[in-house]
Specification:
Layout lengths: L1 H16 L7 E4 L2 E4 L2 E2 H4 L5 H10 L5 H13 L8 H10 L5 H10 L8 H17 L4 H14 L16 H12 L5 H15 L1 H4 L7 H11 L4 H26 L27
Antiparallel strand pairs: 1-2, 2-3
Length: about 280
């Protein structure tokens, strides 16, 4: 018995003493290397989206992928005061808490129904692709996976929106993925699913076009991102919005107020056009 305990302790000691590995960032005096590239050489030469892709995926993106990911990050930058994460950040901000606490509260407000639909939709689409690999056509696979949702009276992840009857962000992302020649099997399948849903809209009583989460899910999957990284892209995208709302709450509103999102009025800039030359 004593010998067994001693051997266990030696095993733990060897485990504790082993050096562990990371392939992300190498730090040495006067040197910072991200995935093998010097960060000071990246600065001014890589856009933020390209640097994010490098860090998450391990290689530099092509110009087309960099532009596509940049559009994805912009697409979910903010969506007003009503999302649960935004309300969480503002409610903590009204207490006078530090900005970092407010933003952390907002991040904790992400869940399966807000910010988590991207991963769910990626898994949903892969279920359809598995059926295609088993011999079904894309149309048949779309019919099958949508049929499962219809039979359970569930809206498929990545479709429909509480406000938009046609999500302008999804439409633009799909336009760009075609322009940049990045359309893959996930994007084609989600568009096939959209057609099946449109043919069955009487069941749900409304049209259920692809929303921004669905577009991001399909595009992220075609770009090779893992399920969890699909949700991470939304987190990276929405973080500036949470910061902006928390900061505005702390600087414009009275402390300790009860926040009803239905009571707000927008008093910012009216519709503006981007300057000429912005692509």
């Amino acid at each position: 018995m004593a010998k067994t305990v001693l051997n266990d302790r030696r095993a733990h000691a060897r485990t504790d003493g082993e050096r562990w590995q990371t392939s992300l960032t190498e730090i040495a005096p006067n040197t910072i290397m991200i995935r093998g590239y010097a960060v000071d050489e990246m600065m001014g030469r890589l856009g933020f989206a390209e640097a994010v892709y490098l860090l998450l995926m391990g290689e530099l993106p092509t110009p087309a992928i960099g532009r596509m990911l940049n559009a994805v990050l912009v697409s979910s930058l903010d969506h007003g005061v009503t999302p649960p994460s935004t309300l969480a950040a503002r409610n903590v901000a009204t207490s006078g808490a530090p900005l970092k606490d407010c933003v952390a509260a907002g991040i904790l407000g992400f869940g399966p129904h807000h910010g988590g639909d991207i991963e769910s939709c990626m898994r949903f689409l892969d279920g359809g692709l598995s059926q295609m690999r088993a011999g079904r056509t894309m149309a048949q696979a779309a019919e099958a996976i949508i049929g499962e949702c219809v039979s359970q009276n569930e809206v498929p992840p990545g479709f429909g929106h509480r406000l938009h009857t046609k999500d302008p962000r999804a439409a633009r992302l799909f336009q760009m993925v075609l322009e940049l020649e990045l359309e893959g099997e996930h994007v084609r399948l989600i568009r096939a699913c959209e057609r099946v849903l449109d043919a069955n809209k009487e069941h749900f009583g409304r049209s259920l076009p692809v929303n921004v989460d669905g577009a991001i899910a399909a595009i992220s999957a075609d770009l090779g991102f893992a399920y969890e990284l699909g949700n991470a892209i939304f987190l990276i995208s929405r973080l500036p919005g949470l910061i902006a709302h928390a900061h505005e709450e702390r600087t414009r509103q009275a402390p300790m107020r009860q926040i009803d999102p239905k009571d707000h009025d927008y008093d910012g800039a009216r519709h503006r056009r981007l300057p000429e030359g912005r692509k």
